[in-house]
Amino acid sequence: MEEKWWQRSVVYQIYPRSFQDSNGDGIGDLPGITSRLEYIRELGADTIWLSPIYKSPNDDNGYDISDYRDIMTEFGTMADFDALLEKAHSLGLRIVLDLVVNHSSDEHRWFVESRSSKDNPYRDYYIWREGKNGGAPNNWGSCFGGSAWVYDEKTDMYYLHLFSRKQPDLNWENPTVRDEVFDMMDWWLQKGIDGFRMDVISLISKPAGLPDGEPGPNGYASFQLCANGPREHEYLREMNRRVLSKYDLLTVGECAGVTLEEAKTYANLDGSELSMVFQFEHMGADFHPVLGRYAEQHKNLPLLKEILSRWQRELDGVAWNSLYWDNHDQPRIVSRYGSEKEAYRELSAKMLATCLHMMQGTPYIYQGEELGMTNYPWTSIGQINDIESLGNYRDFHAKGLMTEAEGVEMMRHRSRDNARTPMQWDAGENAGFTTGKPWLPVNPNHTFLNAAEQVKRPDSVFHYYQKLIALRKELDVIVHGHYALLAPDHPDLFVYTRTLGDESLLVLCNFSETEQRFEIPAEYRGAEILIANYPECGPLGVLRPWEAVVYRRR
Ligand code: TEU
Ligand code: CA
Questions:
Q1: Is 347 contained in some domain?
Q2: Which ligand neighbours the alpha carbon of 25 most closely?
Q3: Is the domain of 504 the same as that of 540?
Q4: Whose Cα sits closest to atom 16 in ligand 1?
């Protein structure tokens, strides 16, 4: 099977609101991104995924779209987008947009029409149901806390919203909705974009009859019961047939609730649906048994290794993996699985990068991850903007499951705002992100943790990511090599091999602050070191705190 361009790509994700402000209003924008494209090219990423840039009331920071064919006022104009796209392409950078079509904003004209009357032509663009027993049609909960239904007085019915109440779910069973979506996608593709990241695309086909689910700790059934619904793959194959197959695109489905088996269909290398998916199983390896992602759980490296290894082994040759630690919804990986201690922060950031980037799949680097950026030191709930962590804190607090102090602790570990504090460009005022008041506070550690300092320092996290990216471009064993996990039960070492023909890599990562020992297999003793995060190699078989080393045998 011939290699697809996105199998050797490295994607850089930008959250436009927090990347670079160009007009001093404290909010990132498109001209700001355009001014930073050379930085991304210098890093070596070849594709950029932009989180939503479309018109939006920003109830969920752009994931609530009120006009799919116009640019968010705060981000600039369509002319600004055209300039960004043109400059990106001139620099050899591809642009992938965020497709958010499980739901729209309630301020989209479709929904304004739909809610106006039961016989409006747009009524069935959304999911309306009669109430049951004087309440909501079923016990589904929103991902952001509370019920997934809103009672609408005007027509005495409820509408469904798996996310915020201002994000009504679109009714994909309605062929006219599919026509509208496919037409809009084609409109953007005709402008020359290079693909889509598809927001919660695994939720678009709801279970028949919308039955009650198993209630969770907040009393509601999880929105994830909608994942991989009855007509999911029918819709995606229709999208592929009518739109995607006409272009040479990178498409990545954000698939909450996707299983490995389902991923073999979503991301099959036969090109029938999508290029790849974002799975969430590995993100759940440190979830709290009751409060899930909303409480810190002890690191369980053997579980993380088991999950990632299973996805590596079972998709190999069948489908394609995405590779990620960070994005705009996840806390910073250095704070989550690495170390914020000054002595170890950069070492652990490089170790985590090595562990991910030596695997098979397309790696995604979230803005600031290439610097080893960390979570923000929140001190009060009042500082938080994130609708998801606020909504879930409200539910758990109301049920007596989380005190305010535990809520602040949760925010420090889990709030999506940890990923949304401004990009740290330099040591100056507001880290060079804005000349105005930033919409979220800048992490105080920007005075020493910033791009300007690292671009100048050869042993920085930035230059380490640059090396990892260059190695992927160069070595087939990284792109296509077969994966095997070693020492599965070791609590602190993540050790695996990649093999392609008679060439192989041995990847050793110490996920701990203590020295670990590992018997290097004979065939790797004396092998060349492909990359390592310590300046000089240590004794064979000894892994120093947070050490990563990759041996290459040919
Ligand atoms: O996220 C989907 C989703 O499930 C997230 O809520 C994610 O799983 C969660 O934050 C991690 O527990 C997408 C977007 O990435 C997110 O920013 C939006 O808020 C959400 O969809 C609704 O559009
Ligand atoms: Ca701005």
A1: yes
A2: 2
A3: yes
A4: 329
Give the model's pLDDT for residue 544.
98
pLDDT at 289: 85
Is 107 annotated in the active site?
Answer: no
SS3 230: coil
Q: Which of 46, 60, 199, 296 is catalytic?
A: 199
Checking DSSP bridges between strand 128-129 and strand 157-160, what pairing results, if any?
A: antiparallel
Instruction: Mark whether 414 and 540 lie in a shared domain.
Output: no
Residue 514 class from Cβ within 10 Å (0-12 exposed, 13-18 middle, 19+ buried)?
A: exposed
Ligand 1 near 60 CB (within 6 A): yes
Q: Are residues 186 and 126 in the same domain?
A: no
Q: What CATH code is carried by the domain that includes residue 122?
A: 3.90.400.10
Give the pLDDT confidence of 76-126 residue by residue, as tens digits.
999 999 999 999 999 999 999 999 999 999 999 999 999 999 999 999 999
Is 476 inside any structural domain?
no
Q: Is 420 in the pocket of ligand 1 (CB under 6 A)?
A: no
* Domain at 330, CATH number: 3.20.20.80
pTM of the predicted model as reported, rounded to 2 decimal places: 0.98
Contact 330, 293 (CB under 8 A): no
Give, as residue ranges, everything with CB less than 5 Å from ion ligand 2. Answer: 21, 23, 25, 27, 29
Q: What pLDDT does 291 receive?
A: 87
Low-confidence residues of the chain, pLDDT below 70?
297
Total domain count, the chain: 3
Q: Are residues 115 and 78 in the same domain?
A: no
Note if 453 is an active site residue.
no
Identify the nearest ligand to the CA of 391 by its number. Answer: 1
Name which of 350, 320, 336 is nearest 284 in CA terms: 336
Closest of 4, 28, 41, 49 to residue 324, by C-alpha: 49
Contacts of 413 (CB under 8 A, 6+ apart): 295, 296, 331, 335, 336, 375
Residue 84 lies in a domain: yes
The two tokens of residue 154 are: 């005007």
- Integer CA distances (angstroms), 30 to 93, 99, 315, 422, in order: 15, 17, 36, 15
256 part of a folded domain: yes
Query: Do 240 and 321 have their domain in common?
Result: yes
* Residue 367 and residue 13 in contact, taking contact as beta carbons nearer than 8 Å: yes
User: How far, in Å, is the centroid of ligand 2 from the Cα of 18?
Assistant: 9
Pocket test for ligand 1, best of 15, 17, 63 (most atoms within 8 A of CB): 63
Per-residue model confidence as pLDDT tens digits over 459-479: 999 999 999 999 999 999 999
